[in-house]
Recover the amino acids of this structure.
């Protein structure tokens, strides 16, 4: 079973030592509302935001896309 969305985000935050959504957002160069919307599947991040999300959450692009439920065909 794959974990995605907010469940994935909170698990990843714990793994990398980010104590709050605000702290995770700052690590990604975002505000916490934007981060919440991405992982709540309200909106998709722009392609330009993906590298910052990967760095901030310390994951590969593939891991991030799976977590965001993005399928590339």
């Amino acid at each position: 079973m794959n974990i995605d969305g907010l469940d994935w985000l909170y698990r990843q935050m714990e793994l990398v030592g980010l104590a709050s959504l605000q702290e995770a957002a700052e690590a990604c160069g975002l505000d916490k509302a934007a981060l919440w919307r991405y992982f709540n599947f309200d909106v998709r991040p722009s392609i330009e935001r993906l590298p910052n999300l990967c760095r901030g959450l310390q994951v590969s692009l593939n891991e991030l896309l799976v977590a965001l439920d993005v399928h590339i065909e």
Observations:
- The chain has a mean pLDDT of 94.
- The first helix runs from residue 5 to 16.
- Residues 9 and 56 are 11 Å apart (CA to CA).
- The chain is about 60% helix and 0% strand.
